[in-house]
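Before going further, it is useful to explain how the protein records used in this thesis are read. An example of such a record is reproduced below.

***
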Amino acid sequence: MCRHARTPPAPIVGVTGPDTSGAIAWWFTRRAVLAAGGRPVRIRPSRPRPDLTLDALILGGGAHVTTPGMPLSIATKAGFDPARDELELARLHEAMHDEVPVLGICRGAQLLNVYAGGSLLRDLAPQYGGRLPRTTARARRPVCVVSGSRLHAAVGCERFPVNCLHRHAVGRLGRGLRVVAEDAAGVVQAIEHVEHPWCLGVQWHPEYLPHVGAHRSLFAALVRAARAGSSGRGGHLQQRDAQRARPHDPAPVSSSHRARHDTGPVQASGQGNLALDDASERRTG
């Protein structure tokens, strides 16, 4: 009798997004994760899924990022989403603690920097000679990638075009982060954590460029890291597969998971209070 090896379960990839709108970004990101061999799960403020154990986390694009110390009159304006910020900071804190692979997209890269104690540039016009570049979903802006970085390993090249859909960018770098890609104007296009096994933030939207190999490779690298990381954390993919075989046996939420979720992400990670970002601040190394 011939026995066939069982196909391992697909890593669960949490994809954060807003409660309103965001359907197009979710559809493209979902497609990219599925093509890379992962199982995408949508996470929103109205459905945070705190009982879901993730193998990887994607911080999606969207609204502007609020920062600690920002006046309430600004944070509650259109274009900001404090509820989403709170959700994503909590999920990011868990991922950093558990060494779960993280990919921050556009807003997600900015949130990663704020989480680490960095700031944002709210006005990019001075960086581009007084005139903002045209926004486009097409890959029109060349970026230069640092050789030997995780981003370089993922995309396999040191220069390739990206799209531009943002109005803010990384300013002063947060602790433990380094710049791994810039555009011709010197605006940060990608950052990565120097200690976390796989934590990367990109300022562009790779999900909208499935026809470009370098951008598909980002999702493939994330899913590979998810498989490797899960195996290294005790093979919970295999444990989860066994649990799925038991009918009507919901997995309980562990007390340690609940404690990490209930503890404020910034305070629990020892980051302390972050200063309000200044549009005139420049990145420091």
About this structure: The CA atoms of residues 211 and 261 lie 37 Å apart.
